[in-house]
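Hi,

Apologies if this is the wrong queue. I'm a grad student, and the batch job for TetR family transcriptional regulator from Advenella kashmirensis W13003 produced an output file that my downstream script rejects. I'm not sure whether the problem is my script or the file. Here is the sequence I used:
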Amino acid sequence: MKSTHDAPGRRERKLRQMMEHIAGTAATLFESLSYESVTMERIAEEADVAKRTLYNHFPTKEAVLAYWIDAELKRDLASLQSSIARCRTFRSRITCVLRASADWCEKHPDHLMAYLRHRLLGAGTRGPQEARSDSSDIALVWQQLIAGGQQTGEISKESPADQLATWFHHLYLGALLRWLHTPGLSLEGEFRSITKLFIEGAAAKRSSTAAH
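Support response: The file is valid. Your script probably expects a header line. Output copied below for reference.
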């Protein structure tokens, strides 16, 4: 008799495959046309799925966009692992990730505002259909890098890594919003500024020794 223990795993794979298919189809439309001009009905038509199926997986167009961008992020972060591993300091490791982020963002500025709006307004309210794997969330990358910096003594341990990661993520989102709203700004320059601000604020303090 065939075991049914792997049934949830099969269902999860099918769900992921369907979401990837829909998001991939939508991404092609966003890139070939424009994000604003693409409707949910057009996505359903091009993906060859019923509108009800589409809305069961993604309640809004912004949710489709966010899923695609998160998948892009996950792929890019995976390809960065060897480069990050060669970096010797916390600053160089986080700069490596930010440089890659700036490169992607500069190629997709038209998508970013809708993505940021969706993430900021939907914080803490996403349903299961919008849940992301932890490895695709850049906030988790900040947490991992900060925890590493704490282990090497570069970052203070006064606050837990997850709290510091949340604060840095807010700086990151703020830099993106400022760049999107201010013509002529360098995104890499904005990222350098928030990195400097964060490191100077969170750096481990060296204990002073007596002068005698």
